[in-house]
Amino acid sequence: MEKPADSKQILFDGEDGYDAVVVGSGYGGSVAVCRLSMAGVKVCLVEKGRKWEAKDFPTDSFKIMSAVRMESQNLGVSFGPKDALFQVYEQNDSLAAVACGLGGGSLVNAGVMLPTPARTRRNSKWPKEWELDWDSCEASAATMMRIQNVPVQFSIAKIMKEIDVGEVEEMVQDSMKLSMNFDLEESPSRLEKHQNLDICIACGNCLAGCPYNAKSSTDKNYLASAIQAYSL
Prior knowledge:
- The chain is an alpha/beta fold.
- The protein has helices spanning 27-38, 61-65, 118-121, 130-145, 156-167, 222-231, and strands at 9-10, 20-23, 43-47, 68-72, 77-79, 86-91, 94-99, 112-113, 177-178.
- The strands form three sheets. The chain has a four-stranded mixed beta sheet with strand order 5-4-6-7, with no helix packed on it. A three-stranded mixed beta sheet has the order 1-3-2, with helices on one face.
- The longest helix is centred in the middle third of the chain and has 16 residues, at 130-145.
- Mean pLDDT is 82; it is low at 1-10 and 186-191.
C-alpha cells in the first residue's frame, strides 16, 4: 500500500492503470472493491484516512477530542488533524459527521446487524428481481461480517434483548446481532480471514473504535478478501 503526499491511500498499485476506481472504504466502498476484485477487475481504492490499529483508537475523553477535526465554512475556520478519526463539517444549515480511516464508518459504530423487516422488503419501489437474491445476500453479509449474539454473561445482553423485542418489528426472536468477536474459546472451524480478531470484553468503546481488536470492521473482512483475491 502506498501513501502519496496528499494522504490518500491506494490499496492496489500497478503500472498498467486500473479498470475501476472506488472512492471511500466504508461499507459501500469495501463491498464494491471486494466484489470487483473477486470478479477479476483491477481496482484502485482511494481513501482519505489512514489505517487504524487497535492501539491507535482513543479510549478517554481527552484522546477522543484529539481525534476530531472540525471544518466550518460558515466561520471560515478549521482545526484538528487532517487524518483525524472523526471529521465534522459545517456548511450553511448542515452539519455532517463522518469517520476517516480505512474501513470508514465501520470503525466507529457498534456493528449492529439486523435482517431487513418484511414490510420493508414488500415496498414496491424495490426491483422485483432483488427478492430472489435478498436472503442469500443477507446471509453472505452476515458471514463476511461474522455477526454473533451477545453472550448472556455480558451485562449488555439484557439491554440488547429489550431493544430487540421492544423496537424491532416483524423480526424473529434474537435477531439483533453484532459484528463483534465474542468467541470465548478458539474454534477449529474459525474462518481464516477472521483469525486476527481478539475477544470482545464489552468495554463499550465501539463508537470510538475498538481498542481490543474485537470488531469485524470492513478492513478486516471485505478489504482483506479483496486483497487476497487481487494477489491470486
